[in-house]
Every structure is written in C-alpha cells, then in structure tokens.
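Why show two proteins at once? Because comparison is the fastest way to build intuition. When a single record is shown, students tend to memorize it. When two are placed side by side, the eye starts asking what differs. So, the first record is below.
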Amino acid sequence: MQSQVQLRVLAAGAHQVVRSRASGAHYSAKELPHTVGIDCVGRDETTGKLYYAFTMQGGTFADRINVDRSNIYPLPDNVDPVSFAANLNPAMSSWMAITQRTINLPKDFTAVILGATSTSGRLAVYSAKALGAGKVIGIARNSATLAEVDGLDDYIVLRDPIAETDFTKVQDVDVILDYVYGDAAVHLLSSLSRVKQPVQYVEIGSLSQHTSEIPSRLLRSFDLTIRGAGAGSWRIPALIKELHTLVPAAASWKLTPPRSVPLKDIEQTWNDASLRANARLVYVPENIS
C-alpha cells in the first residue's frame, strides 16, 4: 500500500495557528520556504472518499496535496467540507484539554465552560458530552446568544461589573474550561471556595485580553488544580492519536457556519479582519465545484 495519498483540497481553515505560522511567530514554523495551512478537508479522487487531513509540515492551501496515510481521517459523505474545515481546529482545544490536561474525572462529571458563546466554547459543549460529562453549564455575557448554544444543560450570564455575577449554579463543578480568563475567571474560582469535591481548572484562551491575579488563598481553600491547555502542554503525537476519535465524533455535531473565500483571493483578503469578525474563515480552491 502506498504511504501517501493525493487529495483534492476542498476547504482549508485560516486558523490562528495557521496565521501565526505564516508570520513566523509560531515555534513550529521558523524557516523558509513556508507553505500555508496545517489541515484541510479533501477528496481522494481515485476512490471518491472524503477525508480530514492534518499535517504540521504545512501546505494545505493548495489545489491538491500529497499527505501520509497516517495523517488522514475518513469522513462521512454527508459532511459539509467547508464547515468541517472551519470547526475541527477549534474543537481540538476542548478535546485535548479534557483528554490530556485533566485526570480521573468522575463518571458523569459536571463541566463549566467560560466563554461558551465563542466558536471554541460552543464546540466544547460537544467535546465535554462526548467525553463523559453528565452536565454542562455555559458562561458568557450575551444572554440571547448563550440561550441558543446547543447542548447546554444550564447557563450563567456574566454581569457588569463581574463581581455581581451569581455563580451558585456551579457549586458541583468538576472541571472548568476557560476561554476568557481575567476577572471572570478569578471571580468564578473565588465563588467555589466552599465546594467539597476536587475542581480541575483548565485555561485555554484569553478572550478578555486582561490578566488578573489569582489570590493565594484560593490555592489553599479547596482542592483546586490549575493547568493550561495548548500545543505546548500536550504533544502532536497525542493529538494525532485523539483525532481518530475526535474526527468521527465531530462529524455528527452541529457545526458553526463558516465564512468561505476563494483561495485565489488570499492576497487581498488575508489581512481583512472584517471577514473573520463573526465566523471562522476558510479558503476554498477554485476546483471545489
């Protein structure tokens, strides 16, 4: 059997890691030449089968790519290539946070997602449920948007000021997945000082773009474990292994709508922040039709 497969690229996501690598800022892409893209959805033209492909060697922003068989994952024919290409990367954040950065979560654990209305936060609801959560509580600022997040068992609206937010609903939490950080995270953790069970807090993102000091008393007042989750805290081989489970799971999820742009227009659109303001940006080769 040939070790590589040629895929006709149908869609490739312009994820933050892709942009960081393209700028030379990411540790994994410091040398030139660099071909943009780490993943895509493509079709094997010899068999007609649809695949998700992941490769840190890059180069998925192309009409066709050659990729090792070990880096492709089959998809059902009914999956929308553009939506899947947009959503799988943000879904990795919560999946890897739970599988790699938590330990011994109880059966039917309770998960709290801080920043549940973001793309990654919405997908984190699915990840938590797929990985054994019995209850998922979402936290965000926009009450109307929060109420529409699929799969939540309950939610809490962040108030302004943050200190007025009531977190009594989360006293049975086992794991917190935080995409916000800052004052919201500190107030949430401060509200858990009377919990009896261990709490695992995993910091994934910083949507607030503010940092706040975690009082030392919190580290002593209850059984709190604090970890971060990102490509530096887990290894790529672990991700490759988890994709065998994540890809088929995500294929059945309700994915967030993307924004697609023709690959031929990449030079004019790459730095246009308005294109990615409300949706994940995906580049689509002309050969998709």
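Second record. Ask yourself what differs from the first in the token line.
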Amino acid sequence: MKKKFTLEIVNSCTENFDNMIPNANGSFCNSCVKNVIDLSSKTNSEIARFASENKNKTVCARLKTTQLEQEFVYNETSKINNFKYAAAVAASVLLTSNVVGQEKPSVQTEINSTKSEHFILGKVAYNETAEEQVSIVVKGKIIDSKTNKPLDKKMYPKIVFSINGSESIIKVNAKTGDFTASIKILKTDKTIGYTISSGDYFLSKTLEFDIKSVKENVLQQNIEVDPEEFRKIYVMGGLGINYSEIKVTKEI
C-alpha cells in the first residue's frame, strides 16, 4: 500500500549545527544531549526509507526549508506480501530456466548491406566573437546596511563569500568585514553578482558595476547587506511526519 507524507519541524531549535560534533548517527548536540540527523542532503527515497524505519520514534533532524513543502511517497508492504513476491520470483526463475534448457539454439544470420556515404572535403572555418576579459582585484568590506558595521559574528559565523562565481572561497575578516577577491570580468559587464552564506542563512544579489571605477586594476567596493534579506535555508528541531493514504480509484 502506498502512503504519502509530509515533514514538519514540531519544536524548532536555534542551536548552530556547525558547532555540533559529527558521529556515525548524525551530529551530537551538547545543549539537547541528543543526536541531530541531517536529512538536508538526503534524496526523496532515502528520506522515505528513513521515515518508515523511524516511524513513531522521537527524532531531532535538520532539513532544508524546501523539504517542508515537498510531498513524499512511502510504499508500505507487509511481510506476507514480501514472502509471496519472493516465492513468485523464485518460481518464475525456475520455470524460465527449464524453458531455456529445452530450447534449441537459433541459427544466426548476418546480412551485410552497402550504404552510400557522402563526404565533403575542405578547410574548416568558424567565426568566434570574443569579448575582452580582464582580471581585477576587488577590495572592500561586507557591512550591515543599517548599522554600517560588520555583520554580527554570533548570528553569522563562518561567512562564506563568493563574487562573480569565483570557485575559491574568499576570506572575510570576522571583526572588520574586510575582504580581497581576484575576479575576471568582461569590459561590457554592467553588474557583479555575489553570494553570502553563513550556517543556515543565504543571500544572493547583484550590484551595479562600471569598468571606469577600476583604478590601477583595483576596484574599491563595499558590500552592504540588509540582514532581513537573508533567506533561511535550513531548519532544525523535532521531526514530525504526517502520513496519509493514497486513494486508488478504479474505473468501471
């Protein structure tokens, strides 16, 4: 029987997951003295299996906020049905083996047909419109737009900063908010994109850019952030699972 279910956080938790101690069963929270299971990186099938194995158990978990909006499907089968299925498969395999053993090998024939192929010979030419790309260094501070001070390091610890899709992590001074980033841009670029993440919070924005602002290959640019624009992407706390049966309608 198929059942569908949704997830919810019954009792939310404000502890920092990054400060917990990882172990084989999740991460151990010293404040609650219990393990927190990280389901945020699990697939739908893995979550469905976890839910079936931990039904009616008290579980503290970490989820993505988008997972609270999802509907999962759980296939509930009884032991009797499993036994019947295994017996049917075994009988099917045995029957197939007997039939194959009695069959005579078929005579294989190979048919060769001549296909006409057309080729064009000559030099290969292609047109490429290349935009001029330059490397610059961006220097500035990440500051709270309301206080003009660095972001609260207690609220936003271990800031991960990326600008214009840079693959390397840009270090941000937690006390001053200072950063230095080497990036590549096109001379025709009008904006620069950046992302800031810290623990459960994430922010992605763009700022207007003018190549004329670059002096001696350096762009002085502060990043002003309104904390209210941060999007919470993870939630943590007591896990609730709401089951409901999938009704099957038969056409007459």
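One difference worth noting in the second protein: The helical segments are 44-53, 79-102.
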